[in-house]
Specification:
Blueprint (H helix, E strand, L loop, with lengths): L2 H20 L1 H8 L3 H22 L6 H18 L5 H13 L3 H14 L7 H24 L3 H25 L1 H7 L15 H22 L4 H22 L3 H4 L8 H16 L4
Helix pairs in contact: 1-3, 1-5, 2-11, 3-5, 3-6, 3-7, 4-5, 6-7, 7-8, 8-10, 8-11, 10-11, 11-13
Length: 280
């Protein structure tokens, strides 16, 4: 193995470690993908995870400057074909191999910048944020799943966006306590979380159900190499969503809803069984 190939391998392994350490649920889904697809999806998730950590975690640092430098290094890496940040290097290599549109990357970085403001979102900003923070990540992965088949990518474009939107909205509900109380973020437009009602929660849940229904139509059309892994992620999030739906509004404002390790393994086993008999 030459030194360039070794650097590539180490970079992709770094992105894998980031994914596995930060998200056990996504890691389970990725492991159900065809082996050829795992490294590029790890690269995508590792990249977006690091950007998300900048805006969510490093409170003692100048987060705006860190994000600016991260963005600049991304564009330099895409132009040069190399970065000494191994996670960015793996990401830029994946972008080039699978023809991922740069517009998707810019939209993602724009949404990360929006998180620095800790603002209330109107409908337009909410849609922009959902697109940039989640839908484009699904579209990046869709490039990998379609393997360069542009017609398939265009056919599954809207379901992929719906799946990313559903995941993000579930995350919003799950993280209401931290986002609202600690970070000053209020994503859902027109909702006063000081007076968060059962009807407010019901309307949000109805919107998420529509996203999940649209997404499942697309999952069924994915290539076999990716379908099982994406379905696993879908099942995990729908299980988490149902758990949130059973909670009262005041409960999700006080506690972060989780699925424990045993629950995740149960979902994995049940998803595999349902997939094997084509019952989804």
């Amino acid at each position: 193995m030459n030194q360039i190939a070794l650097f590539d391998k180490v970079s992709y392994r770094s992105a894998q470690v980031v994914t596995m350490r930060y998200s056990s649920s996504f890691s389970l889904g990725i492991r159900m993908l065809d082996r050829s697809m795992r490294a590029p999806v790890y690269a995508i998730y590792g990249y977006v995870r690091f950007a998300d950590e900048i805006v969510d975690t490093f409170h003692e640092q100048d987060k705006a400057q860190l994000l600016k430098e991260f963005s600049e290094e991304t564009w330099k890496a895409l132009d040069r074909g190399i970065s000494m940040n191994p996670v960015i290097h793996a990401f830029q290599d994946t972008v080039k191999k699978y023809g991922i549109d740069r517009e998707l990357i810019q939209a993602f970085l724009d949404s990360m910048e929006m998180d620095l403001a800790g603002q209330n979102y109107d409908h337009a900003l909410y849609q922009k944020y959902i697109y940039g923070s989640a839908e484009v990540v699904g579209l990046m992965c869709l490039h990998v799943f379609c393997g360069g088949d542009r017609s398939l990518y265009e056919r599954l474009y809207h379901p992929a966006r719906s799946l990313g939107a559903a995941f993000q909205k579930v995350n919003f509900l799950r993280d209401l306590k931290d986002d609202h109380a600690e970070r000053g973020r209020m994503y859902f437009p027109g909702v006063d979380f000081a007076r968060f009602t059962a009807n407010d929660k019901k309307l949000i849940e109805q919107d998420i159900r529509r996203d999940f229904a649209d997404a499942l139509l697309g999952i069924r059309q994915l290539p076999v190499q990716s379908r099982k892994g994406v379905y696993m992620a879908y099942r995990y999030y729908t299980k988490l969503f149902r758990k949130i739906c059973r909670k009262q509004p005041e409960s999700i404002l006080q506690d972060r809803i989780r699925i424990n390790g045993a629950g995740k393994m149960y979902i994995l086993a049940k998803s595999y069984a349902r997939y094997t008999i084509n019952f989804f």
